């Protein structure tokens, strides 16, 4: 009898194992760099087809007949991903994005469920969405290269692959109807203001990692209004020639913003020819003039002028004029404004096409514009985006669309397509 039971148990286990192997074999898996996947942001492919990054990046994954979407991710630190779903055949067929969820990535390697139960009218656990045959998933890193670190700490994230363990197939994003596409490109270089540090709160409060969201920054909102792709190189506490705290070599933004990986001191330099922006927005100086320092710093103005000229030269394209550069100052501090204006004048005298933008009136120009730790709130970032979009739109001839500062999903849509 015992032998029969063991035999029956063994047969059942074999059937279950066979079913599991069949399910695993049937799952569609795509490396992050698979041509069916869309990536926007700085990074590099590894030998296994994964994508290694630390600046905010976005991925678009389109599926047909899937119930669950997972991602294999490795991270050297904590990271936060926002996941949003769009369907052209299901319940949200009007071209709008559905609800969103946040996935927290822990140090190490794991497989994370991005969307579960699409066929059961569920999205991201408790978030409900109508069942759909065709669904596109937008996955975006919410936090900056290395959240508020005063010393370089390798914070790279590797997105190895996307999988559909419940069946279905991954289809090319290019074949999905209704997804807006744009060849417009804008680059932002800045500090905590551009990184949306403390955006998800209202003063008085102290900024925490979970209160940062790249999709609520004026960078993402500006790109949304202008239907443009975004690259954002921003790091809290960093300055042009002096930081909020650390003054170690290689820790200032003119060095950091050139890297593929901002958090890696010996990172290779980004291939600037691979993604040439139509406009560049720079806001650096808040950390330089902080902390009771005697101002102005003699090296600030020439260093900014040199950065503006370097940007002009790196993006020089035969047959086209210099890329428009917007050197902003404010809204948290205003004392570096005269130096920004002087640097713009000096750079333009040597071939740049730059303009100084005064954003100091945003504080305290409206109710609720100050978030945590004295940084712009959602309303403050919204006001900054209004000014930035108008300035860039005027220079490029692009029409300025609506800006929804309360809905980061709307910004991520344009930011990632």
Task: Explain what you see.
With 417 residues, the protein is of the alpha+beta class. The protein has seven helices and 19 strands. The strands form four sheets. Strands 1, 3, 4, 6, 9 and 13 form a six-stranded antiparallel sheet that branches. Strand 3 and strand 4 form a beta hairpin. Helix 4 crosses helix 5 (337-348). The radius of gyration is 23 Å and the shape is globular. Residues 2-6, 13-25, 91-96, 119-130 and 413-417 have low confidence and may be disordered.
Salient structural properties:
417 residues; alpha+beta; 6-stranded antiparallel beta sheet; 7 helices; 19 strands; globular
Short synopsis of the structure:
The protein is of the alpha+beta class and about 425 residues long. Helices cover about 20% and strands about 25% of the residues.
As residue ranges, the low-confidence spans are 2-6, 13-25, 91-96, 119-130, 413-417
Count helical runs: 7
Radius of gyration of CA atoms, rounded to a whole number: 23 Å
Range of helix content: 10-25%
Total strand segments:
19
Shape: globular
The sequence of SSEs as H and E is: HEEEEEEEEEEEEEEEHEHEHEHEHH
Sheet with most strands: 6 strands, antiparallel
User: First CA to last CA: what distance?
Assistant: 64 Å
Structural class: alpha+beta
Mean pLDDT: 83
Percent strand equals 15-25%
């Amino acid at each position: 009898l015992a032998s029969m039971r063991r035999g029956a148990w063994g047969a059942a286990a074999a059937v279950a194992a066979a079913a599991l192997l069949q399910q695993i074999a049937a799952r569609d898996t795509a490396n992050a760099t698979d041509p069916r996947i869309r990536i926007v942001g700085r990074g590099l492919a590894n030998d296994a087809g994964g994508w290694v990054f630390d600046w905010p990046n976005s991925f678009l994954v389109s599926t047909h007949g899937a119930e669950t979407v997972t991602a294999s991710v490795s991270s050297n630190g904590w990271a936060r991903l926002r996941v949003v779903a769009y369907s052209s055949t299901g319940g949200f067929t009007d071209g709008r994005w559905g609800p969103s969820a946040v996935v927290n990535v822990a140090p190490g390697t794991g497989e994370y469920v991005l969307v579960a139960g699409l066929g059961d009218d569920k999205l991201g656990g408790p978030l409900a969405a109508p069942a759909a045959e065709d669904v596109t998933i937008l996955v975006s890193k919410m936090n900056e290269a290395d959240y508020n670190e005063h010393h370089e700490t390798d914070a790279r994230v590797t997105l190895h692959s996307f999988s559909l363990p419940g069946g279905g197939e991954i289809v090319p994003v290019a074949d999905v109807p209704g997804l807006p596409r744009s060849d417009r490109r804008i680059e932002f270089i800045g500090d905590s203001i551009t990184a949306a540090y403390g955006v998800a709160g209202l003063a008085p409060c102290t900024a925490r990692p979970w209160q940062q969201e790249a999709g609520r920054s004026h960078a993402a909102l500006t790109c949304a209004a202008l239907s443009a792709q975004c690259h954002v190189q921003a790091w809290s506490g960093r300055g042009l020639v002096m930081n909020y705290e650390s003054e170690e070599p290689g820790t200032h933004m003119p060095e950091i913003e050139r890297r593929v990986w901002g958090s890696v001191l010996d990172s290779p330099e980004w291939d600037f020819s691979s993604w040439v922006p139509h406009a560049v927005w720079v806001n650096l100086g808040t950390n330089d003039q902080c902390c009771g320092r005697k101002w102005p710093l003699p090296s600030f103005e020439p260093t900014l002028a040199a950065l503006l000229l370097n940007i002009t030269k790196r993006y020089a394209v035969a047959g086209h004029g210099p890329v428009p550069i917007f050197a902003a100052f404010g809204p948290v501090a205003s004392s570096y404004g005269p130096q920004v204006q002087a640097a713009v004048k000096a750079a333009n005298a040597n071939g740049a096409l730059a303009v100084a933008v005064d954003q100091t009136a945003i504080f305290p120009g409206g109710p609720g514009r100050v978030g945590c730790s004295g940084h712009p709130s959602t309303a403050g970032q919204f006001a900054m985006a209004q000014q930035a979009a108008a300035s860039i739109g005027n220079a490029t001839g692009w029409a300025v669309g609506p800006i929804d500062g309360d809905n980061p999903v709307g910004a991520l849509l344009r930011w990632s397509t």
